[in-house]
Amino acid sequence: MKNVKKSEPIGLRNIGVYYPDMVVTSQEIAEQSGIPEAVIKEKFGIESKLKASPGENVSDMCVKAAQNCLQGILKPDELDLIIYHGSEYRDYFLYNCAAHIQHKLGAKKANVFQLSNLCASGPLALEVAKALMMVHPEMKNVLLVTGTRESDLVDYRNERARFMFNFADGAAACLLQRGYNRNELLETKMITDGSFASDVAVYGVGNISYHTHLPIELDFLKAEKAKEDGKPVGYYGLDVADPVSMKERLDAVSLVNFLKVINGAAEKSGYSKKDIKFLAPIFMKKSILLFILGQLDMNIDQSFILKNYGHVQSADAYIALYEGLKLGRIHDGDLVIMLGAGTGYTWAATAVKWGEREEVVL
Question: Looking at the structure, do residues 37 and 152 belong to the same domain, yes or no?
């Protein structure tokens, strides 16, 4: 790729993470689900996963990740914008978590908003933040924050929810700076297939269940028993309407779309898949990650497996990038792809050119 003198760069200055102290092990998941531990490890890709403590709210975890991200670089009151793009399951239902984070962090000058595209929100938030910074020159420091404790909503006794057994808790933050001449944020590629939109949901919460006046049951087995008895009960937990149908349809397109967005982000940025040197993925089991890496002529040392973290919603790619840097797997000049995917269904990827930004005037 030829380097040309471009407009002022938007650089990824730093990433901060927050990992809860508690963990859930593969043995514990096996005991609660009745699935052999070997299957949890091999088929589900989970050895252990992060778990928030009782009373540890999403906004609390986001603030801790933000503080870790800003430490030694920037004071909170120097932020111009905060974008929360984490779980829709947070401290309260229908409330402004971004504003709560701003207040707790002490970022009095920052405007805020929330962005939701489920677990694909990471690349989207990066693209939106970059676009806003490009058209608003006064916007110099933008913080992206994401957090989740969606593991609360997963009942291991619910066989329909098996693909969500990897859901974990935690938070991450990413600081973008105008004029930062390193780690330039490049382009994003997304694919959405809305035929999956209602396959996964907390069906007991929302205007449909509200207008049918369903009583809500927190316990999965009690909710199932109520249904068997002919009682109209909504289950307050994540559920899948038809897991067999969803899996069949998803298996037919998911790997293809993962590769399309990875290659698309690279190509939109002026590169090819041969230039990709590190993949920061969403949680996936090792065999799927190895397949994707193989299609890109890459190896496992050019990525990071989240087997001991779990699926921390849209924080996954930040965590993989953070841990990859600690392991020395990312070097100046590398093209990095940050990958996300979320039920609904959306696949998304963002390219970052790591290291010093080179400029050549033609």
Answer: yes
For residue 341, give its domain range. 186-197+240-356
pLDDT digits (tens, 9 = 90+) for 252-309: 999 999 999 999 999 999 999 999 999 999 999 999 999 999 999 999 999 999 999 9
* CB neighbour list of residue 176: distance below 8 Å, 6 or more residues apart: 10, 11, 12, 13, 126, 129, 130, 133, 141, 142, 143, 144, 185
User: What local confidence, expressed as pLDDT, does residue 231 receive?
Assistant: 79
DSSP string covering 252-300: HHHHHHHHHHHHHHHHHTT--GGGEEEEEPPS--HHHHHHHHHHTT--G
Quick check: is 280 in a domain? yes
pLDDT of residue 357: 85
- Are 327 and 216 in the same domain? no
Cα dihedral: 161, 167, 25, 159 (round 10): 0
Both 319 and 344 in one domain: the answer is yes
Separation between Cα atoms, residue 362 and residue 5, nearest integer Å: 8
- The span from the CA of 236 to the CA of 223, in Å, is 9
Is residue 30 within 8 Å of 40, Cβ to Cβ? Answer: yes
| Segments in the chain below pLDDT 70 | 1-6, 359-362
